[in-house]
Amino acid sequence: MSQQALLVMDLQNSIVPRYAASAEVIAPFQGAIEAARTHHIPVIYVRVGFMEGYPEVHPRNKMFGRLAQSGISAGDEAIQIHESVKPQPGEPVITKVRVSTFAGSSLEQILRAKSIDTLILSGISTSGVVLSTLREAADKDFAITVLSDACLDIDPEVHHVLMDKVFPRQADVMTVEQWAGSLA
């Protein structure tokens, strides 16, 4: 029998307001978290953050090089998990330093220590953390499910192309309701 974990990726204070203008947009994430907790599936939170002075960021990195100029550090409120999906005590909050959840984080060690072989992916953004994590997880031989309505992207067309054409090559794609129903 597989051991699953739900990854809630990049739902942090600096990111959620850019994508989720209303509570109904966050509802699928909350539903996935509730289903996981009800079925004793570990919920693992992931955020992006850096040490003071950004020693992890190379100036050539187009995405994070600009962030280094912003002054956001690992202790700032901006990188904390958004209140709408707040972790419970004992749920890991992993800090990564690149787009993929595996990059510069302890995620793989935590997954291996808990014998987790199946990842349920949710996050912001579909074309960022979800895509990068899916690709790396597939290369590491994890089974993967992507929760289509618990992923957001600034570009709806890109979201749909990834969900309909790209992700199904390496993952099962389903809604939160479909996934939760499969747990019963």
TrEMBL record:
It comes from the Bacteria. Keywords: Hydrolase. One of its GO terms (molecular function) is hydrolase activity. It holds the Pfam family Isochorismatase. Residues 5-178 form the Isochorismatase-like domain. Belongs to the isochorismatase family. This is Nicotinamidase-related amidase. It comes from Paenibacillus cellulosilyticus.
